[in-house]
Amino acid sequence: MLLDGVMLLWFIFVGLSLLFVVIDIWSTPESPVLKWGFILITAYTGPFGAFLYVLGCREPLPGMHKAYTAVRWRQVFGSTMHCVAGDGVGILAGAVIESYLALSQPMGIALEYVLGFGFGWTIFQALFMRSVFGGSYRKSLRKTFLAEFFSMNILMAAMLPVVAFGRLAIGTILVPRMPEFWFVMSMALLVGFVAAFPMNWWLVARGLKHGMMTVQPKIPAMSMTESAPMTMSTETAAPGEHAGDPQVTRNALLWMTLLSVSVLAIGVGLALFLSKG
User: Fold this and answer.
1) Spatial CA neighbour of 88 closest among 143, 32, 167, 163
2) Spatial separation of the C-alpha atoms in residues 103 and 108, rounded to whole Å
3) CA atoms lying within 13 Å on the CB side of residue 241
4) Which one of 93, 119, 235, 271 has the fewest beta carbons within 10 angstroms of its own beta carbon?
5) Residues 131-160, mean pLDDT to the nearest whole number
6) Alpha-carbon span 97 to 103, nearest angstrom
7) At what angle do helices 47-56 and 32-45 cross, to 10 degrees?
8) pLDDT band at 3 (very low <50, low <70, confident <90, very high)
9) Percentage helix, strand, coil, to 5, in the chain?
């Protein structure tokens, strides 16, 4: 079948892309959490993830990473990738659990959302990025909640119809032991990334989300007679990276809440409609 050939080629590209990113990214002066994020996004989206890494994060010349990633659209790449990488772990776990428990579609959607949002917010955002908020996990939870909520809503709204259409096109129940399951989920996460990009642009532009981060050597002060000590790494921010001083009104947050929830409702409705087809 044509689909079998397409999937085989896709998984080969995913493997090669993942191998490249895993080997290459450790020489890039990026934050460890974003390094893992790029690895995850490449595992989800194969050559597209590798392309995003090279285009958005890979240092073109030594010492240029911070300046290279300071451009707004690269900052948004980092923000969107961070969202999809973290949320994707929970969403995929929910889809696997949904399959083995034979949950109804509404229950499965709810489980995927809860696990995706829960992992993305409490682990990938609040825990791993708590240094942005002075090391306080509680403050990080509070500061990252809305941004994660907005981004997750758009991601899920785009993913759900793709998964439903994939199931309809393949014509069978998708289970984790089938390659079709992972192929469809990969396509859904890729579409979700594209859909969530505009929302993350809005969030980064208003200081509600971070973008890329750069790890630069920190050289302690020394006297004229001392020899140079070994360097230590520290995370430094590119412009617009930190979400410490949001520039957004309560009315704007209210409207964005209504927009993201409405888009999610449309996505859920479309997925349920396609499932009946």
Assistant:
1) 163
2) 6
3) 24
4) 93
5) 93
6) 9
7) 150
8) confident
9) 70, 5, 25
The C-alpha atoms of residue 269 and residue 129 are separated, in whole angstroms, by 34
Nearest Cα neighbor of 99 from 181, 192, 3, 183 is: 181
Mapped onto helix, strand or coil, the DSSP state of residue 118 is helix
Contact 244, 144 (CB under 8 A): no
**pLDDT digit string, tens, across residues 14-41:** 999 999 999 999 989 988 888 999 999 9
Q: Which two tokens stand for residue 141?
A: 């939870």
**Residue 234 pLDDT level (bands cut at 50, 70, 90):** very low
Give SS3 for 178.
coil
Separation between Cα atoms, residue 83 and residue 209, nearest integer Å: 10
CA angle at residue 143 from 92 to 160, to 5 degrees?
25
Residue 152 token pair: 């997750």
Give the residue carrying structure tokens 């096109």.
169
Residue at token pair 């989300």: 209
- Is 233 a residue whose pLDDT tops 60? no
Comparing 111-115, 132-136, 178-182, the range with the smallest average pLDDT is 132-136
Burial grade of 222 (CB within 10 A; 0-12, 13-18, 19 or more):
exposed
For range 92-117, the mean pLDDT: 94
Q: What is the CA radius of gyration of the chain?
A: 20
- The DSSP-derived string for 119-139 is HIIIIIIIITTGGGGTT-HHH
Report phi then psi at 213, rounded to 5. Answer: -135, 150
